[in-house]
Amino acid sequence: MAHTLIYLHGFHSSPGSLKARQMGAYLQAQHPDLHYQVPTLPDLPQPAWQAVSRCVEAALAQGTVGVMGSSMGGFWATRVAQQYGLPAVVINPAVRPDRLMATHFLGDQCNPHTGVQYHLGAEQVDELAAFCCTELSHPERLWLLQQQGDELLDYRQALALYQGCRVTLEPGGSHAFDGFERYCPAIVEFLASPS
Predict the structure, then answer these.
(1) How many domains does the chain have?
(2) At 185, which CATH number?
(3) 115-160 pLDDT, tens per residue?
(4) Which residues, including other chains, have CB under 8 Å from residue 168's CB and lie 6 or more apart?
(5) Containing structural domain, residue 138
(6) What is the pTM of this model?
């Protein structure tokens, strides 16, 4: 039976993000037996969730799955944990990304990593709001990695939502989660251990 780890990248990012590459390098060196997938997530909510769901369901058909994600990827990883009952590690996750979108990203946009141009309207913000989790069932399935120095998201929102989960809170840092590579071994242990 195969075991797959899925990394979900953030908003306006890509599978080439630093953390995705750091985890891939660690797995290649230390756990070549594990399957590793980093799907390309569209910038709009419904297509993004469809891409996440397809990836998760295809991996589940082959064996067991663990998921991790940063920022918006952490938001989607939380949704995966809730819907599919899978373990997830969330790194500086977005808790209410719909509010951030409504105030900073309405209108014509361009993903700086992929060059994809698109339009974000109020309808898409409402779609994103519908995916938000206000409470977590089975918090033991989730591990929050959070740095207080996140300059984009209020870390206190994450602490409130993920209370009862395994929580690692570090002072300083940034939205990118400085020093992520330190946690690769522990993340793999959390996601790949039999539940």
Answers:
(1) 1
(2) 3.40.50.1820
(3) 888 787 888 889 989 998 888 989 999 999 999 999 989 999 999 9
(4) 143, 144, 145, 146, 183
(5) 2-192
(6) 0.94
